[in-house]
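Practice problem 4.
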């Protein structure tokens, strides 16, 4: 059905058909192509190629699976003058993302009792689950406005971190152009009580061991050492971002922006229209909410380690924080000229290479860290971006689901998922049984296959493998 033509290792072209303004580009290994349910997501890749102003390719990453409008694992860049901005190209959980920190403790030397205490302490300190939010009381309206406009900068000004954290965060922890007034009252109210919380579903806090180093020189520059303890935090914009997306979809559909598109879920407004600008301003506010969220969660984790191990909070160093549901204005080379594009990444990660202007001096030396969570039973990967222009300097965002939540729940509902994880040597805490059942390792593709495809396609290189041991799920 899909006449994919291999162009290079793990790189396939989906030929342009009637209505498609650009071809598709699929990053995957033969194994992944054979294993994945490919029809629905590749149809979405074709549909995205119909959007006005799209340039280059409609792109699929190796962790691709079906999503709302765009596939999860989809990338598309739009000309800023002729193109559109699509809420379905960002997703409901705006700036869902991941941050990695390292701790100066040799993980293998931690006793089982210490691990239990650490897990319990963080579970108690970081709210998780549907609707759960922070425990410090609501923010004032003025503080809330600052949070939405300034992102992680606001948290650091309030004492929840260190200025250097911003140099280790994509876009320095703030998407410029956010507007408090572009966000509905419903969205603002939904988010106000959820600051500093994990949320539900696949969001998590994970602690484990740096298992293996692949690029010693890069790891040394970043301060990543085999045997070291790490912390991964995966969270987004919670109900705030969800409401921003839903509000915008309602407006765009009502105004008829879905006409002439193959799928109404792709509904999009011209970037330069008042509606397009309003969505970007609200989306940026949601993105800043998410940056702030992960900053506050890291603060809680730092406090837990400090109390248990008599560490200074600054000893727990942030390696990097990446977005993987976002639309951003970036400068890229097209036909020998630098052009500003609106790059949609949904379930995809920016992967700038050495020397990229937006990176802090440390990462200009090496390229940008790319964080690839796998699943809670096997491994995750730390990679370094290569700045591949074919994908607008983008890479994958994780292993990608292999089966739906419904399928996973059905498979595990009469079993003991916590016991199964314990047999793997992994302790799990969650706010519900359902979350653990839906998030078991067999729900995900093999992350090793995914990162191998990314390497062979020259999007990013592996720096380190991370092995989970303690997991908190939303």
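Answer key:
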């Amino acid at each position: 059905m899909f006449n994919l033509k291999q162009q290079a290792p793990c790189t396939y072209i989906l030929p342009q058909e009637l209505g498609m303004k650009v071809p598709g580009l699929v990053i995957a290994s033969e194994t992944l192509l054979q294993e994945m349910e490919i029809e629905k997501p590749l149809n979405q890749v074709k549909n995205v190629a119909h959007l006005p102003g799209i340039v280059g390719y409609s792109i699929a990453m190796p962790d691709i699976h079906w999503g709302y409008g765009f596939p999860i694992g989809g990338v598309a860049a739009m000309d800023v003058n002729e193109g559109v901005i699509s809420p379905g190209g960002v997703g409901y959980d705006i700036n869902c993302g991941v941050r990695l920190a390292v701790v100066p403790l040799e993980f293998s030397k931690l006793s089982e009792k210490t691990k239990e205490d650490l897990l319990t302490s963080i579970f108690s300190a970081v709210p998780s689950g549907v609707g759960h939010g922070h425990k410090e009381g609501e923010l004032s309206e003025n503080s809330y406005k600052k949070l939405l406009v300034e992102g992680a900068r606001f948290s650091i000004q309030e004492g929840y971190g260190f200025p250097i954290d911003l140099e280790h965060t994509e876009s320095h922890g703030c998407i410029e152009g956010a507007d408090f007034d572009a966000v509905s009252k419903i969205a603002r109210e939904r988010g106000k009580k959820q600051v500093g919380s994990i949320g539900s579903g696949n969001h998590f806090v994970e602690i484990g061991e740096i298992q293996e180093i692949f690029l010693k020189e890069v790891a040394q520059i970043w301060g990543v050492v085999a045997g070291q303890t790490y912390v991964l935090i995966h969270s987004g914009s919670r109900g705030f971002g969800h409401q921003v997306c839903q509000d915008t979809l309602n407006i765009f559909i009502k105004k008829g922006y879905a006409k002439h598109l193959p799928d109404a879920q792709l509904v999009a407004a011209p970037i330069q229209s008042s509606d397009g600008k309003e969505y970007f301003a609200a989306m940026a506010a949601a993105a800043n909410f998410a940056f702030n969220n992960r900053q506050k969660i890291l603060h809680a984790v730092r406090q837990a380690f400090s109390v248990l191990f008599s560490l200074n909070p600054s000893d727990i160093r942030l390696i990097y924080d990446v977005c993987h549901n976002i639309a951003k204005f970036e400068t890229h080379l097209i036909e020998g000229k630098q052009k500003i594009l609106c790059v949609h990444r949904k379930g995809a990660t920016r992967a700038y290479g050495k020397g990229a202007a937006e990176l802090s001096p440390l990462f200009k030396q090496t390229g940008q860290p790319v964080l690839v969570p796998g699943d809670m039973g096997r491994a995750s990967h730390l990679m370094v971006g290569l700045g591949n222009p074919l994908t607008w300097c983008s890479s994958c965002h994780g292993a990608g689901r292999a089966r739906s939540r419904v399928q996973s729940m059905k498979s595990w509902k009469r079993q003991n998922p916590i016991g199964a994880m314990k047999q793997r040597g992994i302790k799990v805490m969650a706010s519900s049984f359902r979350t653990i059942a839906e998030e078991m390792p067999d729900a995900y593709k093999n992350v090793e296959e995914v990162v191998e495809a990314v390497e062979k396609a020259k999007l990013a290189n592996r720096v380190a493998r991370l092995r989970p041991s303690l997991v908190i799920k939303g």
